[in-house]
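Late entry, evening session. Most of the bench is empty. Finally got around to the prediction I had been postponing all week. Sequence below, unchanged from the version circulated by S.P.
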Amino acid sequence: MRKPSMGAVLFALIPFTAICFSVTLWDRIDPIVLGLPFNFFWLITWLLLTPLCMWGAYRLESARASDAHHPGGE
């Protein structure tokens, strides 16, 4: 098993950082966004964006794996 690329790790860290380390930025009830307190809206948004970030990491790794199978760009 190979180590993941730095780009894939960074893609995976985006939602982790946005959810865990930004609490001081979004820890409030007001304003209301789409009928939800802002903190719920923030978490739900990142819940929906996380698969997009994981897809980006997957794409980076799959491109890297296909390059490893075809050395020389053939």
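Two things to note before I forget:
The longest strand covers residues 32-33.
Residues 6-62 form one domain.
Will write this up properly tomorrow.
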